[in-house]
Amino acid sequence: MPSTLQSLVDACLVGDSTATAAFVARFRGPVFGLCYRILGHREDAEDMAQETLVRALRSLDRWDRDRPFEPWLLAIAGNRCRTLLARRYHRPKMQSDVSELADPRPDVNAAKFLAEEIELALSKVREEYRRAFLLFHERHLSYEQIGQVLDCPLGTVKTWVHRARKEIVSQLHSRGVVHEQRDAVRRT
Amino acid sequence: MRCEELEVRIHELLDQRKSIRDDPEVVAHAAVCAECDKRVASFQAMLDGVQALSVPELSPQFDRAVLRRLANPTAVPRRRTYSWYSVAASFAVAASLLVAGLVWWHAQRPQQDGGSQLANPSKQSADLAAFVWTIPGRVPSERIHEVCWTTGRNVVTLPGKFRRVAMSPDDTSIAGRIRPVTRPMGVAWAVLKRALPANTEKTPDSNHDTGWIHSPGRIAVANASESSVSYPRSA
Q: What is the mean pLDDT of residues B79-86?
């Protein structure tokens, strides 16, 4: 199996099926993760991830080798997701299954508890803010990459991420999450 | 550092992916200001919480589905070039179909005019259109099938169980595969939406019109007015 990305791409371009399978295995995680964070729906994300990988594999010859590969691939994923979002814009909004009641046992599983609180807070944040925030903090994309993926200016991305942070922090604060968390840390 | 400068500083640090707990200015200020100390803790809780978020597992058939889509040239349309004779041939075929359609329409018209809507549901189903609905690629290959709404026969047959059904016509996971042949698509979807929920279950992670059919069966559409739709459990 080709070891470097360049040789993997070369092998895919000549139709090497082992290389193609390796390509899919290598990039399915980041692509699916991105799609899931943009779409917030597992099955739609899987569909778009499949479509992204197929499109990327079919247009590998158009990848500019002087530029990093992953942003190019993620930009394709962003395009696919945006197309899907544009078509489903009038669908009912996603609703979180997370309860409005705070978990009374934060120290049982602090990480899980915090994740649930973040999910709940995120469900109340505007969609654009939520996407930008998750792409930056959870997917670790740069502001430039997020701008490419969401097709908006860098300044806008920054504003969205900052606003999302403020809203989430204020929700965590108002729900007393921080105090409980600190107490849990102190107890351990 | 003053209190109003703290949040600006925190955003700067986070933008640079630096730790807020290791910044001397933030630490020094938080040590003397209880309110700002809480604020720092809130930001830290947010960061910890994001790291604890999880992404669902990919389905085990994911790789296979990608490779199948890749092997299937119709899955993602490619640009094609047309030669003059292929264009001419297309026109010839289109003209033939038009003539055949006109002949068929003339043959059907007297019967439609004279028939009762409720007494002859199969005639009404022509209004519901014929469409081909292909279950999307994430379904394992052995489950892939086409659901055909056959004009005149008035029945949608779902030949297996656990079929995913997306009942929204704008769902892009299937939109590219829906080919409305006649009119009106909306009526057909409305009938399906009313017919399916009795035997479907919504996916837990969305409130979209997406469901899983839990038993094989048929959807019978009695007439185009949608007044009597049933979903018999017969296998």
A: 51
